[in-house]
C-alpha cells in the first residue's frame, strides 16, 4: 500500500484524498490538520448565511469517513515543539501533498493601515466563523459607517454580514458572541470601494445580487461612477460574467432612494491612499480618484475624497505563507511546482506535491479545487513506482504517538459536532452553534476520550 499524507483538510485537501482513493485502490491517506476540526475555509471562511455552500461539508465528510482515509486533527506541520517538519513527514509517508491554502492576508502598504478600527477582512471572517485562533473583538462597537476595501467575493461577504440583520443570522451557526455584537451594531452605512471600475470587479454576479435582497437595506450605485467605465456604457462586448455584474449595477444605479435604514454604497475608481485617525482610532479613509488607463489598469487623477469610517475592513486578497522545508515563490506566494510536483532547485521532487491555493494562488471557487487536486493526484500516481519506501513505519500514527503527538481522530471531531448541536439547542437557536474557542473545543475532545 502507498501511504500518503495530505496536509490540510480544506476543500483542496479533501478533494486530493478523494481523488487518491478513487483512482488507486492501493493507497491509504492520512489527512492532517493543525486544527481539531476539518474542512478548512468551508468551516472557517464560507459565510454563516451561505448554508447551501456550507452543506458541502456533507460531501467532504463522506471522503473523510472513507475506509482508506483517516482524519488526524491537531497535528501541526512546521518547526518547533510538537511540530512535524517536512523532512519528518517524508520519513513517515511515501508521499506528502501540501494543501495548506493561502494563510494570510495581503497588505495595502499605506499610512494608517494599523490604526485601531482597521482590520483585515480575514480577521473579521475568523471572528464570525469562530476560528479558535481569533482573539479580536469589538469590530462594530461604536461604528456607524464602515468602509470595505476591495471588490472580491470576500468583500461582498463581509459587507453582507455587516448589513444582514441579527434575526436572520440567529438561524446560522455563528458563535453567540458575534451574533450578540452584530445584533447591537449601529452600522448604518457600508461603503464597498474598488480602485478599478465595475467591469473589472472580481465578485461574481450571484454573490453581488444577494446584496440587493437584504431586508431593510438599500444598495446605491452612483451613475456618474459607472459612466467613468467605458465598458459600462456598452457592456455587450464583455465576457458574460462581467456583463452580468455591470447589468446588475446599472439596474441599481437607476433605482430611486428607498429610505431604508441601512445602506450599502458601491463605489468605484477610488484607490485608498491613507487611513485617517479620529483621536486614537480610524475615522476615515482617504481615496484618490482614479481613471481607466485603457489597459485594464487605472491612473491617479490627483483628486481626493475622504469617506467616514469607524470600521475599515481591508479585503484585498489572501496570500500563501512559506512552509519550513519547502521551496517558496515569494512573488506569487505559492510553492513552485509542475503539474503539482514540487520543484526544488529546478527539478521536480517525487514524493512532494501541492494542490489548492498554495499551488495556484488564492483564486477560484471551491469547485475549482476538484480538477486542481486531480491534476496533482495524477502526477503522484504516475510517480507511484518510485515512491513506496521499505523503511517507512507500518503505521505513521504509531510513530506520531511514540513522539508524543496525540492527533484528534474522527471520534474527537464527532464529539465537537455533538457539543455544537447541544450548544445550539441550549441557546434555542434552532440548529448547530459553533464552539467559540480552543477551551471549548478541547473540552469536547477530552469528553470523547474519557
Ligand atoms: P479577490 O477576488 O482577488 O479580490 C481582491 C480585491 O482586492 C480586488 O477587487 C482587487 O482589486 C482588490 N485589491 C487588491 N489589492 C488592492 C489594493 N492595494 N488597493 C485596493 N484594492 C486592492 O480576493 P478575495 O475577495 O479575497 O477572494 C479570494 C478568492 O475566494 C476568490 O477566488 C473568490 O471568488 C473566492 N471566494 C468565493 C466566495 C463565493 O463563491 N461565495 C466567497 C469568498 C471568496 P484589483 O482587481 O484592482 O486588483
Structure description:
- This protein is of the alpha/beta class and 450 residues long.
- The chain folds into two domains: 191 residues, 3-Layer(aba) Sandwich (Rossmann fold); 212 residues, FAD/NAD(P)-binding domain, CATH 3.50.50.60.
- 35% of the residues lie in helices and 23% in strands.
- The strands form five sheets. It has a seven-stranded mixed beta sheet with strand order 3-2-1-6-20-19-18.
- A hairpin with a 2-residue loop joins β13 and β14.
- The longest helix has 18 residues.
- The chain is globular.
- The relative contact order is 0.17.
- The mean pLDDT is 95.
- NADP nicotinamide-adenine-dinucleotide phosphate binds next to α7.
- The site of NADP nicotinamide-adenine-dinucleotide phosphate has 24 residues, from α7.
Topology overview:
Blueprint: E1 2-7, H1 11-23, E2 27-32, H2 40-44, H3 51-54, H4 56-64, E3 69-72, E4 76-77, E5 83-84, H5 86-92, E6 95-98, E7 104-105, E8 118-120, H6 121-128, E9 145-149, H7 153-163, H8 166-169, H9 176-183, E10 189-193, H10 205-211, E11 217-221, H11 223-227, H12 230-233, H13 240-253, E12 262-267, E13 270-278, E14 281-292, E15 298-308, E16 311-314, E17 318-319, E18 337-338, E19 341-344, E20 347-354, H14 357-360, H15 369-382, H16 384-387, H17 396-402, H18 410-427, H19 438-449
Parallel strand pairs: 1-2, 1-6, 2-3, 4-5, 6-20, 8-16, 9-10, 9-16, 10-12, 11-12
Antiparallel strand pairs: 7-17, 13-14, 14-15, 18-19, 19-20
Helix pairs in contact: 1-15, 7-10, 18-19
Residues 108, 149-155, 157, 194-196, 200, 202, 207, 272, 315-318, 362-365 line the site of NADP nicotinamide-adenine-dinucleotide phosphate.
Amino acid at each position: 500500500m502507498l501511504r500518503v499524507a495530505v496536509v490540510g483538510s480544506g476543500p483542496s485537501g479533501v478533494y486530493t484524498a478523494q481523488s487518491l482513493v478513487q483512482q488507486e485502490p492501493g493507497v491509504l491517506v492520512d489527512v492532517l490538520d493543525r486544527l481539531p476540526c476539518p474542512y478548512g475555509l468551508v468551516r472557517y471562511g464560507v459565510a454563516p448565511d451561505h448554508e447551501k455552500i456550507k452543506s458541502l461539508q456533507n460531501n467532504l465528510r463522506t471522503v473523510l469517513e472513507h475506509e482508506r482515509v483517516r482524519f488526524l486533527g491537531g497535528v501541526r506541520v512546521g518547526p518547533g515543539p510538537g511540530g512535524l517538519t517536512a523532512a519528518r513527514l517524508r520519513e513517515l509517508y511515501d508521499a506528502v501533498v501540501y494543501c495548506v491554502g493561502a494563510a494570510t492576508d495581503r497588505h495595502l502598504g499605506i499610512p494608517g493601515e494599523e490604526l485601531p478600527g482597521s482590520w483585515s477582512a480575514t480577521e473579521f471572517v475568523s471572528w464570525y466563523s469562530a476560528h479558535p485562533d481569533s482573539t479580536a473583538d469589538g469590530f462594530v462597537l461604536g461604528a456607524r459607517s464602515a468602509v470595505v476595501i476591495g471588490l472580491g467575493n470576500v468583500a461582498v461577504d463581509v459587507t453582507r454580514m455587516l448589513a444582514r440583520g441579527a434575526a436572520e443570522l440567529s438561524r446560522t451557526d455563528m458563535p453567540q458572541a458575534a451574533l450578540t455584537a452584530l445584533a447591537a451594531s449601529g452600522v448604518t452605512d457600508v461603503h464597498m470601494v474598488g480602485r478599478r471600475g465595475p467591469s473589472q470587479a472580481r465578485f461574481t454576479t450571484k454573490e453581488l445580487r444577494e446584496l440587493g435582497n437584504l431586508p431593510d437595506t438599500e444598495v446605491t450605485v452612483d451613475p456618474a461612477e459607472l459612466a467613468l467605465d467605458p465598458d459600462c456604457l456598452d457592456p455587450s462586448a464583455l465576457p458574460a460574467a462581467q456583463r452580468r455584474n455591470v447589468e446588475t449595477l446599472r439596474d441599481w444605479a437607476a433605482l430611486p432612494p428607498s429610505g431604508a435604514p441601512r445602506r450599502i454604497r458601491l463605489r468605484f475608481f477610488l484607490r485608498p491612499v491613507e487611513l485617517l485617525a479620529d483621536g486614537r482610532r480610524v475615522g476615515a479613509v482617504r481615496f484618490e480618484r482614479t481613471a481607466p488607463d485603457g489597459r485594464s489598469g487605472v491612473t491617479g487623477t490627483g483628486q481626493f475624497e475622504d469617506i467616514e469610517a469607524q470600521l475599515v475592513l481591508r479585503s484585498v486578497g489572501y496570500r500563501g505563507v512559506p512552509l519550513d522545508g519547502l521551496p517558496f515563490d515569494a512573488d506569487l506566494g505559492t510553492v513552485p511546482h509542475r503539474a503539482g510536483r514540487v520543484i526544488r532547485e529546478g527539478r521536480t521532487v517525487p514524493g512532494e506535491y501541492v494542490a489548492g491555493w498554495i499551488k495556484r494562488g488564492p483564486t477560484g471557487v471551491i469547485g475549482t479545487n476538484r480538477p486542481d487536486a486531480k491534476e496533482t493526484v495524477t502526477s503522484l500516481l504516475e510517480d507511484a513506482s518510485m515512491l513506496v519506501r521499505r523503511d517507512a513505519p507500518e503505521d505513521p500514527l504509531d510513530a506520531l504517538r511514540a513522539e508524543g503527538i496525540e492527533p484528534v481522530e474522527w471520534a474527537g471531531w464527532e464529539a465537537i459536532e455533538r457539543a455544537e448541536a447541544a450548544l445550539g439547542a441550549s441557546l434555542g437557536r434552532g440548529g448547530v452553534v459553533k464552539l467559540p474557542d480552543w477551551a471549548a473545543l478541547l473540552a469536547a475532545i477530552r469528553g470523547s476520550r474519557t
